[in-house]
């Protein structure tokens, strides 16, 4: 039996209850009966005393920070967001984060948790993201950080950061997907009644003065649904625009405004996701997987896997194919 992935939640006064709930829902719920790997989630605090969170809630740690820094204690460390973004974080917390990252353990922060990692010095010279309404504050208060204004989440040097609120769910599911495959992440997402992954950037959620009309949004949703049923075909932007009754130029503009990504990029994301599922669930030959997902050839599929996932389809199947497939 494969050992459980050990995930550590870092708890200190002021962390957001929503982010704690997300981390707990993803890694603290047993879904082994549905084929999801086992996880061990531990909550580490300065001591075992209850940690106050906004809204009158508390979280009681089950481990101290010294246990977090123990050799081989964790496979992943996750920091919830905070509401007081410029408030000093207790030095023992910052020292523990520096220690685990120095030991090679991936560290992830949700939403305003990027400010915590910045205080620890883990974002100096690195790319990072936070809620779209806080990117300017992060850049001003920590000028050494290379703030990415519109990504849902980014990774740099083993340090992960996520944009606001729901993007924390996106990052947590992505970390599961990276470690255990798309099917495990999709199973968790289904139980949370959320999408396994979202395409685009957080630019789609910034206040817009002239949003698309409901009629246009419905037309674009219908086009995306139809495209998913025809992924094996060599779809073009002109094809999708024709389904929506728009010119290619107008369609691309409205599509990007609605989803935060281009039609071409969205199609590629869907093709890769479909290929991941087939590689995990079936023993289909590589050329057939490429054909069913619309890549046209195994070579093209391999190139896109290398660019997007930093692996090959064969290596991906070897790592994540279900034993019962």
From TrEMBL:
Residues 221-319 form the HTH araC/xylS-type domain. PROSITE patterns: HTH_ARAC_FAMILY_2. Keywords: Transcription, Transcription regulation. It comes from the Bacteria. GO terms for molecular function: DNA-binding transcription factor activity; sequence-specific DNA binding. The keyword Transcription applies. Gene3D superfamilies: 3.40.50.880, Homeodomain-like (1.10.10.60). PANTHER family: ARAC-FAMILY TRANSCRIPTIONAL REGULATOR (PTHR43130), HTH-TYPE TRANSCRIPTIONAL REGULATOR RV1931C (PTHR43130:SF3). This is AraC family transcriptional regulator. It comes from Streptosporangium nondiastaticum.
